[in-house]
Amino acid sequence: MIKWDEQKDVVIIGSGLSGLSAAIEANQAGASVVVFEKMKVTGGNTRISDGGVAASNNYLQKKRGIEDSPVLFYEDMMRAGLGLNHPELVKVVAEQASEAIDWTRDTLGVKYLDRLDRFGGHSVARCLTTRRHSGADFIKAQSTLLKQKGVEIRTRCLLTRLQTDSQGGVNGVQIRSDYIFPDNNSGIVRNIHANRAVILATGGFGNDIQFRMIQNPGLDVSVSSTNHRGATAEGLIAALELKAAPVHLSWIQLGPWGCADEKGFGRGASFASYSVYQAGILVDPATGHRIINEWADRRRRCEAIFKAGHICVGIVDADGAEVAAESLKHCLKQGYVKPFSTLTELASAFEMPDGQLEMTVKNYNHRIGKGESDPLGKPLIQGAKLLVQPPFYAIRLWPKIHYTSGGVGINSKAQVIDLNNRPIPYLFAAGEACGGIHGASRLGNCSLTECIVFGRIAGQQAAAINPRHLD
Ligand SMILES: Cc1cc2nc3c(=O)[nH]c(=O)nc-3n(C[C@H](O)[C@H](O)[C@H](O)COP(=O)(O)OP(=O)(O)OC[C@H]3O[C@@H](n4cnc5c(N)ncnc54)[C@H](O)[C@@H]3O)c2cc1C
Questions:
Q1: Is 46 in the pocket of ligand 1 (CB under 6 A)?
Q2: What DSSP string describes 96-127?
Q3: What is the enclosing helix (H) or strand (E) of 317?
Q4: Which residue among the candidates 196, 212, 298, 456 is catalytic per the annotation?
Q5: Predicted confidence (pLDDT) per residue in 177-232, tens digit
Q6: Rounded Cα distance, 210 and 27, in Å
Q7: Using a 6 Å cutoff on CB, does residue 37 contact ligand 1?
């Protein structure tokens, strides 16, 4: 018999974008809500993210007359995911993404830059970025709103177990309050009854070396990660212990824009992502040749670098670098990005074979100018930029663990499904804690979007359950 210390209608684990979106919706629907967060600081990976979201028919696309559709968005996600994605979940994201962005703008007051990006694998420019270029914009706005509504976010509270009733339905959580990450014996054990439901919004496990090596032994301590320290698997394990369906756990995504000279995500990755891959080229220094369509999805770009077998060089000219001027300034100061007056100087600094880089760039520019097709399959006529304006900037790139596509299985109501594909009663999940939406490869900016869409669904669904109050 569990001794309950407290009760709330909806108990949410994790204070990232998915958890806080769920909290706002559940509170709005009249439920009492508490959010538990194991770290000292709220926001998880969301807080350190770039704050980029993707949606077809979003308000900026409409303003600029860019044609797009949920069907095209859906097809792009499925193509990158190699069709492993669960179609019904992708459909929900593609269809609700634009409304989700409007919700963040109109209900939360999040502001976006007047800029649309086209990241690898997206057929059109459909990505928006928050004004401060950071997911902290979401966390700040959501935390403020929740505080106004009297919803508590309790930090240093680790979920250690999902509690169940005699029928196997989830009826609460065991946590350790005053927990000090990563000491799993720290803190005080408490049990919180969930009158309506529990929502798992515990994010990914990119920094859980033991758990990720169970999925892929190659991803050992030598492979660095862009994630926050707390991106570890305890929440996921608690759900797996209840026989939640594990989905795509070994599809761990690496980012092709990882800066080889900087720890974590950093500004180099931002520069490479927003500038180099959008307006420049990726070159193997051993040959001086391009190695991939720079607009391909992340998995394909990483594979190309791994195939080269050594650090590759991202190159962009002064015009292409302008879009990421702030990151560039920082990276030049730190030496992560190097400027060169000529391509010959750049080639020589990276010991490329004589004349090869110059030839590569000449051919590339020629094809763009003539509207010719690219042997590597890049659709050059769709806005590829000439590399002509010095200085030319170079950054050393090597993939880093960025995103865990796998997690617990959910259905389109955000209910966690079990090994027999049946919902586990009173348990919901959203965000990176779930698997199935992105399949083999997530397209850039689709995670934060999905966190909002499924976080909101989870909150609404959880609050709609009839309460099971303690006597
Ligand atoms: C550097 C970086 C940049 C990125 N940029 C983008 C971007 O621009 N666009 C995009 O779409 N995606 C981006 N991503 C991916 C995206 O940020 C994440 O996938 C997303 O924020 C996940 O949100 P979430 O709510 O699921 O989890 P998180 O935001 O990670 O939140 C989960 C929270 O749960 C807590 N938690 C975990 N386990 C427990 C437990 N047992 N008990 C209590 N609390 C627990 C964690 O500490 C964490 O705070 C980026 C990721 C990184 C690392």
A1: yes
A2: HHHHHHHHHHHTS---B-S--B--TT-SS--E
A3: none
A4: 298
A5: 999 999 999 999 999 999 999 999 999 999 999 999 999 998 999 899 999 999 99
A6: 36
A7: yes
> For position 470, what pLDDT does the model report?
84
Active site residue 298: yes
Per CATH, is 257-398 categorized as 3.90.550.10? no
The best mutation among 186, 202, 226, 449 to test binding of ligand 1, ranked by most ligand atoms within 8 Å of the C-beta, falls on 202
DSSP state, 442? Answer: P
Q: In 3D, which of 129, 384, 127 has the Cα closest to residue 279?
A: 384
pLDDT higher than 80, residue 301: yes
Q: How many CB atoms lie within 10 A of CB 442?
A: 26
Q: Determine the average pLDDT of the residues in 60-84.
A: 97
Assign 18 to helix, strand or coil.
Answer: helix
E strands, 347-469, are: 392-397, 400-404, 407-409, 415-417, 423-429, 434-435
The Cα 460–Cα 352 span in angstroms is: 57
Q: Whose CA is nearest to atom 21 of ligand 1?
A: 46
Q: Which atom of ligand 1 is nearest to the CA of 39?
A: 47
Give residue 204 CA to ligand 1 midpoint distance, Å.
6
Domain range annotation of the chain: 6-206+401-463, 257-398
Question: How would you label 176-202 residue by residue, b for 16+ Cβ within 10 Å and e otherwise?
Answer: bbebeeeeeeebeebbbbbbbbbbbbb
Residue with structure tokens 């490479």?
Answer: 272
Residue whose tokens read 């301590």: 221
How far is the centre of ligand 1, averaged over its atoms, from the C-alpha of 433 (Å)? 9
Task: Give yes or no for a contact between 315 and 392, defined as CB atoms under 8 angstroms apart.
Answer: yes
Average pLDDT for 254-277: 95
Residue 469 has pLDDT above 90, yes or no: no
Q: Tokens standing for 40? A: 């000292």
* CA 35/CA 254 separation, integer angstroms: 30
* Residue 202 CB–ligand 1 contact under 6 Å: yes
Residue 445's nearest CA partner among 255, 264, 312, 279 is 255
51 lines ligand 1 (CB under 6 A): yes
CATH topology of domain 6-206+401-463: FAD/NAD(P)-binding domain (3.50.50)
Please give the backbone phi and psi of residue 329, each rounded to the nearest 5 degrees, phi first: -55, -50
Assign 1 a pLDDT band (cuts: 50, 70, 90).
confident
pTM score, two decimals? 0.93
pLDDT at 471 over 80: no
Q: What is the mean pLDDT of residues 272-294?
A: 97
Model confidence pLDDT, tens digit, residues 417-453: 999 999 999 999 999 999 999 999 999 999 999 999 9
